[in-house]
Design a protein that fits this description.
- By secondary structure, this protein is an alpha/beta fold.
- The chain has 31 helices and 32 strands.
- The strands form eight sheets. An eight-stranded mixed β-barrel has the order 24-25-27-28-29-30-31-32, surrounded by five helices. A six-stranded parallel beta sheet has the order 4-3-2-12-1-11.
- Helix 11 runs antiparallel to helix 12 and helix 11 packs parallel to helix 13.
Length: 887
């Protein structure tokens, strides 16, 4: 249900909408600001923001990284070049070379290979092989070859494997490779810090810088970017930890995205690849000498058995075997190929859009999908528009990737799906719960969702107001002026009613010409009546038709005010509206719901109570048959008695011994239609009607008779106590003492085994009179107790004057004692006070073993509650006694 501040009543938006509707804009554009669509749908906007927050959370958790990398790999496979730069040649060590020359190559053999290469004057030789110069017969020759000024050797920073000492530092590059979480190489680490704090160059970068040295190309700082560098004709920017589709990668050093050349997967050295030769071909001269002249030659293993291989974006389309992975020398070849292309302006570097631009881009697409779902009602048009949207996004994404711009799109598609689903649910719900003409909530919201009103209006006022407005003779408007005019008037009426709304108010159209206004924050009936009078004044103004004809309308208005939990509030307001219509009154009429409901409920309950008492003949003293077993329900001695009223017994447990010390008698009413009725409902009615007197006498008789029977039946319980609550009306009865004496004589119960409990509030009403009554009752040698002690009346100053034997601690303190130190302190104080005065203390409402343990630790005498047993009928209580339980 829409709140007033979400309705389209903003003055600025109204003015803009009016100006656009009066302009000469095309009809399709003016329809965007038409009343029934709305310029801004705030709920849809809120859903859009919710979707973005969810996506940000999922993005932070890295949920989309795998999908984004898969799209990047697909773009890499689709857009990579076919062959390495012709200036790059790979001298691959094949399986045949290993069998013929052994592995690792001896110093003498490696010196021979380098000498054979140098004979063909390559510009740069990249030695992608670890080499230690231990003294042997080939050491001098190899050292001479390694000291050449066009040779680049490798080192490994992670494993601290150094290059040969004879190679100058500026001719050494590291071959450390950055692996993604899926073990695929997508990044090229250009620069890194050594353990000594110096800047190291990658092997590929050293090779290319050496090759481009004659052209004067070197690394330079980029004045346009604080972290960027100029490399020939390209500007390079390092990757951040969340660049593109990545999520918190290790961005140490200076990394860029690597561009691959398509790999044919054949590394035997005999495949006919014009840019690859084997060691055998080199040493036997089986190749074109022009292939090496003034080129970059990278020397490394391509033999699968050496397992120097890495997964690339091409590997995911094939298998996980080492055969489809790229040898390390080829990987360095791809790195060098990319750097040459970047330096000479033949390739574009990968670019990453800023995070704010990426989120703005994604938000726009998600907002577009949600807007389409909200506005397009025809399923065919909606499906076509969504397909075109997804296709347009895909085309743009592939276009960006073709231009080497990585703009992640997987999370956008998930956002479009989630946002479209939420928007569709909202649109269907809005259509189901709102009137299509006025866009107000309909009767489905008002009547079917009304029982759960308290749940979704949490935190608002306890009382609320309802106004039901029904237009008089509106059918004549439709008949005479047409339904189109009638609809126009209804829209105008809804606008007038909305103008009266305050934050938190709700307006609904529940019929053809009936509106309901709910005021959850109304402080009083007078305030609701004032709003109803404003409605009446607003409706008195005429409605001007397009022809200029004024139309005057009147309405019958009914008002109700009451508690939110009262589901009849709307019916009450409707009844008042019908009364106003019947009386043909133009003034609002208020319905006094609370008094009427109370009167009807009390009257009905009184009738049911009297009928039950008359049916049970509870006014007559019960006559009991002797029950030797004690297990028969003594509430039902004859068919005329006890079929509507029952006495239940809840055990009182001695907390020192854990044994049953007695029972409390509790009255229950078995209503023929409503089932078991709580005493909290019918006792007040019984007190008001005077029925409490015979009911109380009947309970006293039943309880005393039952306890005397149990004492005879179960040895060991001869001194058990039966506790009976006395109503304040019973306490003031002049024949209470005589009636009590007769009951004790007829049942044969020892007066010391009967305890009468009086609430603390009843004791404090007429203190002097109550003292006299209590002393009079005490003369019968019965026990007396104060119930609900400490719940609001201060009886401390009279406590030592009351002839009572026990204080009963109210259950509210016991329920809160586990979590409230204040309640534990109150219970401790009551217990100390009772013991000082020589009284027993009873704690009711014990429901957990923790409460029991704390009360025992505090020294409480008697306990009562569901932890021991719920109130039981007499047979169940007798069975409990027969078991002789201990807690």
């Amino acid at each position: 249900m829409s709140r007033s501040y979400t309705l389209r009543n903003c003055a600025l938006l109204k003015l803009l909408r009016a100006k656009l509707s009066q302009s000469r804009l095309p009809q399709w554009l003016r329809s965007l600001v038409h009343h029934d669509k709305g310029l801004i749908n705030y709920t849809n906007l809120a859903l859009n923001l919710l979707v973005m927050l969810m996506l940000i959370l999922l993005q932070t958790l890295g949920s989309f990284e795998r999908g984004e990398l898969a799209m990047f790999d697909a773009a890499m496979r689709r857009g990579s070049q076919e062959h390495l730069d012709p200036r790059l040649v790979i001298l691959g060590i094949t399986e045949e070379d290993i069998e013929r020359y052994q592995w690792p190559l001896s110093d003498e053999r490696l010196a021979e290979v380098l000498a054979a290469l140098q004979a063909h004057t390559p510009r740069v030789i990249g030695l992608d092989i670890y080499r230690d110069l231990d003294p042997d017969e080939g050491d001098t020759a190899l050292a001479e070859q390694l000291s050449a000024d066009n040779l680049i050797a490798i080192q490994n920073l992670a494993s601290a494997v150094a290059a040969p000492a004879v190679v100058p530092d500026d001719q050494v590059g590291f071959n450390d490779v950055i692996l993604d979480r899926d073990q695929v190489v997508r990044r090229h680490l250009l620069l890194a810090n050594t353990r000594e704090g110096e800047i190291a160059y990658s092997f590929g970068l050293r090779v290319v810088l050496k090759y481009l040295e004659p052209e004067g190309i070197a690394l330079e700082n980029d004045p346009r970017h604080p972290e960027g560098i100029r490399f020939g004709k390209s500007r390079l920017v390092p990757l951040s930890s969340s660049a593109g589709g990545y999520h918190h990668i290790d961005d140490s050093g200076y990394q860029i995205l690597l561009t691959y050349v398509k790999d044919n997967g054949v590394d035997d050295g005999e495949s006919g690849d014009a840019q690859m030769i084997s060691v055998r071909q080199l040493l036997e001269g089986d190749f074109n000498p022009q292939l090496l002249r003034d080129r970059i030659v990278l020397i490394g293993s391509i033999a699968p058995t050496l397992r120097d291989r890495f997964a690339t974006p091409f590997s995911s389309q094939q298998t996980e075997s080492d055969m489809v992975k790229m040898p390390g020398v080829k990987l360095h070849g791809n790195m060098a190929n990319q750097l040459i292309g970047l330096a000479l302006g033949q390739q574009r570097p990968w670019r990453i859009v800023p995070d704010w631009l990426e989120w703005l881009w994604g938000w726009g697409w998600i907002a577009l999908v949600m807007s389409l779902v909200w506005r397009l009602r025809h399923p065919g048009l909606l499906l076509g528009a969504l397909l075109l949207t997804v296709l347009g996004l895909s085309v743009l994404e592939w276009g960006f990737l073709a231009m080497k711009i990585w703009l992640p799109g997987v999370w956008i598609r998930w956002g479009m799906l989630l946002g479209g689903t939420l928007s569709l649910i909202y649109a269907l719900t809005h259509h189901f719960l709102n009137d299509p003409l006025t866009k107000l909530p309909n009767q489905t919201v008002l009547y079917q969702m009304w029982p759960s009103w308290r749940f979704w209006s949490w935190g608002q006022a306890r009382f609320m107001g309802a106004i039901v407005l029904d237009l008089n003779r509106f059918k004549a408007v439709n008949t005479c002026l047409g339904y189109h005019t009638g609809d126009h008037i209804l829209i105008s009426i809804s606008k007038r009613l909305q103008s009266l709304l305050q934050p938190g108010d709700y307006l609904a159209r529940v019929g053809a010409d009936e509106f309901v206004l709910l005021l959850p924050n109304a402080p009083s009936l007078d305030s609701v009546m004032e709003v109803a009078q404003q409605l009446r004044r607003h409706l008195k103004r005429p409605f001007i038709l397009e022809t200029g004809q004024p139309v005057f309308l009147t309405a019958s208005i009914g008002v109700a005010y009451g508690a939110q939990t009262q589901t009849l509030l709307l019916e009450d307001a409707k009844s008042a509206m019908h009364r106003a219509k019947a009386l043909q009154l133009s003034q609002p009429i208020a319905f006094d719901r609370e008094l009427q409901v109370q009167a009807i409920s009390s009257f009905q309950l009184e009738l049911d109570l009297r009928e039950s008492m008359s049916h049970s003949q509870v006014y007559l003293p019960p006559v009991h048959d002797t029950d030797e077993e004690g297990l028969t329900d003594s509430n039902l001695p004859h068919s005329e008695l006890g079929d509507r009223f029952r006495v239940y017994y809840q055990p009182l447990v001695d907390l020192r011994s854990g044994e049953i010390a007695g029972f409390e008698a509790l009255l229950r009413w078995q209503h023929p239609q409503r089932g078991m009725v709580s005493p909290a409902e019918f006792i007040p009615v019984a007190e008001e009607t005077g029925a409490i007197m015979p009911l109380g006498a009947w309970v006293l008789y039943e309880a005393c008779y039952q306890m005397q029977a149990w004492q005879r039946q179960f040895p060991g319980y001869e001194q058990s106590i039966i506790s009976v609550n006395l109503s304040p009306y019973q306490l003031q009865a002049p024949d209470l003492k005589q009636r009590l004496r007769d009951i004790l004589r007829e049942t044969g119960l020892d007066p010391q085994c009967l305890k009468l409990e009086i609430t603390e509030s009843a004791v404090m009403e007429e203190i002097q009179t109550t003292l006299e009554i209590l002393h009079d009752l005490k003369s019968l040698h019965v026990k007396l107790g104060i119930d609900d002690f400490g719940t609001g009346y201060s009886s401390l100053s009279y406590l030592n004057r009351f002839p009572v034997n026990t204080l009963k601690i109210d259950r509210s303190f016991v329920w809160r004692m586990e979590n409230s130190s204040q309640d534990r302190a109150i219970i401790r104080t009551i217990l100390e006070l009772a013991h000082i005065l020589g009284l027993d203390a009873i704690a009711e409402g014990i429901e957990t073993p923790e409460q029991l343990a704390q009360l025992r630790a505090l020294g409480c005498d008697i306990g009562q509650g569901y932890w021991f047993a719920k109130p039981l009928p007499a047979p169940a209580a007798a069975q409990l006694l027969a078991r002789r339980p201990r807690w």
